[in-house]
Structures are given as structure tokens and as C-alpha cells.
Amino acid sequence: MKKAALIKGDGIGPELTEATLKVLEAVGTEIELIPVDAGYEWWIKHGGDSLIPRETWEILEQVDAVLKAPATTPPEPGAPKSVAVSIRQRFDLYANIRPIKTIGGLKGRLGPVDFICVREATEGLYSGIEHRITPDVAIAFRKITRRQSRRVARKAFELARERGWKKIEVVTKRNIMKECDGIFIEAVEEVSKDFPEITYEEYYIDNMAQQLVKNPQRFNQSIILGTNLFMDIISEEAAALVASIGLVYSANMGDDYAMFEPAHGSAPKYKGLNKVNPTAMILSAAWMLGYLGEKERMDAIFRAVEEVISEGRKVTYDLGGSAKTSEMAEAIAEKAAKILER
After folding, report:
1. Co-location of 233 and 250 in the same domain
2. Residue 100: inside a domain, yes or no?
3. 166 occurs within a structural domain
4. CA atoms within 13 Å, Cβ hemisphere of 15
5. Would you say residue 76 has pLDDT above 90?
6. What is the pLDDT of residues 167-184, one digit of tens each?
């Protein structure tokens, strides 16, 4: 039996987790989910140098994957790294993958989109190598390695090949950071030789940010690839092209381990209101099912989400409806179960 750790997170995380478990129960998953502690609310009570307790790390080492609800990251100097960054770095989850796709016919303000953001997720400025050298001066090091650049580039080209897509858009600022982004684009060039049917084009990050707003459809059926901070920003901007950030799910992939999570934050002001959109958490969980071998159940959940959103009767406020988090999840669960019965 496959096993997955379940991090309920902070803010709206626990209620999204509860909603998602209804859907997983409805499709009859055989994966054992093991609840574990982690996050800002746990840290406030217990302290320490990590948002993840030792007991949780021990379980994370034993399972096949992680399903993580949104968790709050404290911004104060000296506070621990985020839960997501800690797990990515510990398990070498070098590729953060965020599909940006119109769901259920709900177009964003700038029209229908269908592309994937692939972000290197273990290094860059997220390496955490920074120092305050005087009270008024701080410096940070942007670490880029050829090894991680090659690995994430290969993941991007593999995703394109799986979908029959022919284009990779590579985000850099190589005219300014010639060495760091030089290594990255060299790695992309090396990997591209194994994928002769796929071409790549380089965009500087400022131009990419503009083009995503000016004409996002130019990136449909392509992969947008870049280093950690650049793609953190670009994938967040891209998420705004979909009708709601509550629809955007993601995976953090390594060679033999993965963590799945919504792209949005913990939204503490909505905690306990049973109001927010559960779709991103539900689809993240569905993706995990597929990753762990339950593809039929994954497909049923994705199809159920499409149908519920397309019908528009049981959707949350951000999608123009009045359903509660739990009500939308129940509608998805019912549809997914019926789809599996057909």
C-alpha cells in the first residue's frame, strides 16, 4: 500500500483538507494518508528552528509523497524557512510544476489559457545564503548550478513531449546576470539536443511579465521554464489569468518523491468561514493519486471538477456562486463517485 503524509497547514488549510478528504473518500482511494504537524501555528506553540517537527520529518522519510495544504511563512528576520521550501530542499524536489489552465469554461479577464509553469525549486535566491554585513547593508547570493538547471530543464522538455507541445519559453535576465543565467541557458541548450522536435526561446523576465498581460494566448500549449525566484513571480502572475487563484494546483517533483499543494496561500482572514474555493487543494490531491498509481481516480476527480464548475450551481463566491467550501467539495465528491461507477 502506498503512503502519503498529510499536512493540514495554517489558516484555511484545515478546512480545505477536510473538504479534500471528502472527495478522496468518495473515490475510494487505497492510499494511506498519515496526518502530520507542520506550519506557523504549530511553531507559535512549540518554537524551534523549523516549522516542521522532528516527528514529522521521520514520517516524511517513510512515505511515498506529501499532500500539503497552505501554510503560513513568518516573514521576520531569523524565522525558519517555509514548510514548502524546507521539504523541497530536504528531498531534492527540484521541479515545481504549476499548470495554468482554464477550467470548466471559466475564462479569466484575458481569455482562455493552457500552459505550464516549471520552476527550479531548490536553489537560486531561495538557497537562503544571505548576510547582514553592517546594520545598514545586507547581501544575498543567487546560487545556480548546472546539475539542477539540467534536471529541471529535462523535466520541462519531458512535460512538453508528453503533451505533444513543441515550445519551451525560458525566463532569464541574462543581459544583467550573465554568469548565473548563463549557466541556466547553457543547461537548457544541452538538454534540448535530446528533444529535437521541441524548440526553446529565451525571454527576459521583465518582457515575460509584460507579454503575459499583453497576449497570454501566445504561450498556450507551451512550457514556461525558469529559475526559482523568477518563476515564483511569473507563475503567480500567470495564476491571475485563470478565473480564480483557488483553481491553481501544483506539484513539486524530484526523481522519486513528490509534494502536492495548492498554489495559493493560507488566507488567515478567511479561516473558519467555510467560504474559500477548495478546487486547488482537491486537484493537488487528485494529481497525487495519479502519481501514486491511481490514475482512474485522478481522472474522475478532474472531470468532476470540470463538470461542477461548468454547471455553476455549487461553486464558491470567487466563481460567481454562493456555495460554501464544504458544499462545493460535496458536489465534486458526488460527481467523481458517479463517474467511477459508469
Report:
1. no
2. no
3. yes
4. 19
5. no
6. 999 999 999 999 999 999
Cα–Cα distance for residue pair 229/225, rounded to 1 Å: 12
Which pLDDT does position 278 carry in this prediction?
A: 98
Supply the pTM of this predicted model.
0.94
For the record, the C-alpha cell of 282 comes out as 482537491
> Which residues, at least 6 apart from 147, have a Cβ–Cβ distance to it below 8 Å?
none
Q: In what order do the strands lie in the sheet with 32-36?
A: 32-36, 3-7, 65-68, 258-262, 249-253, 95-101, 114-120, 223-226, 167-172, 199-204
Euclidean distance between CA atoms 285 and 291, whole angstroms: 10
- The helix or strand, by DSSP H or E, that contains position 103, with its residue range, turns out to be none
Looking at the domain assignment, is residue 102 inside a domain?
Answer: no
Q: What is the mean pLDDT of residues 310-318?
A: 96
Residue written as grid cell 498554489: 263
Integer angstrom CA distances of residue 131 from 28, 30, 78, 83, 137: 50, 47, 11, 22, 9
Q: Assess whether 164 and 59 both reside in one domain.
A: no
Residue 99, in any domain of the structure:
no
Q: Is the pLDDT assigned to residue 128 strictly greater than 90?
A: no
pLDDT exceeds 90 at position 78: no
3-state SS assignment for residue 115: strand
d(CA 333, CA 306): 12
Mean pLDDT value across residues 61-68: 98
Count other Cβ atoms within 10 Å, centred on residue 135: 6
| Domain final position from 241, 267, 296 | 241
Taking alpha carbons only, the member of 34, 26, 32 closest to residue 6 is 34
Q: Taking the C-alpha atoms of 210, 212, 217 and 220 in order, what is their torsion angle to the nearest 10 degrees?
A: 130
230 closest CA partner among 155, 150, 118, 147: 118
pLDDT of residue 126: 87
